[in-house]
Amino acid sequence: MLIFDITYKMNKYILLLLEIVGVTSIDMTSSVAFAYLQPKRKENFEWALRKVNWLFMKDDVFPQVIFIERDLALMNVLEIVFPSWTNLLYEFHIFKNVRAKWKMHVSKTEKWETMMDAWAGLVQSLDEELYEQCLKCFANLCVATY
Length: 146
What we know:
Blueprint: E1 2-7, E2 16-23, E3 29-37, H1 42-59, E4 65-68, H2 72-81, E5 86-89, H3 91-105, H4 109-123, H5 128-145
Parallel strand pairs: 1-4, 4-5
Antiparallel strand pairs: 1-2, 2-3
């Protein structure tokens, strides 16, 4: 598994830092690569990912799962360079976005906390039956809120 993390505008050159970290089956991590890139430039992401692909081609070892943020330029290039790999989004960023959107629509703090608890239950469901129950609960809360 590889984790792609992007840090935006944290240096005087306003370049983003693309860091790629590998995770083994025993939860050990190691740095695979990093690159400073111009933001939102598809060509830059493609260059960086082709270099990573070249690294893995040498040893004939291919991770099958990539965790990424929701950066559209990166997502589009991943489909080109690694079309057979599974791309997953960070749960942290999903929660952050959901929290921000719901905060705008739900005025009372208690309703907002109930919505976030229902969302957490839905996302963290361990099996399909529990997921279906949490989905119904979440859908009912959404209807009651609007």
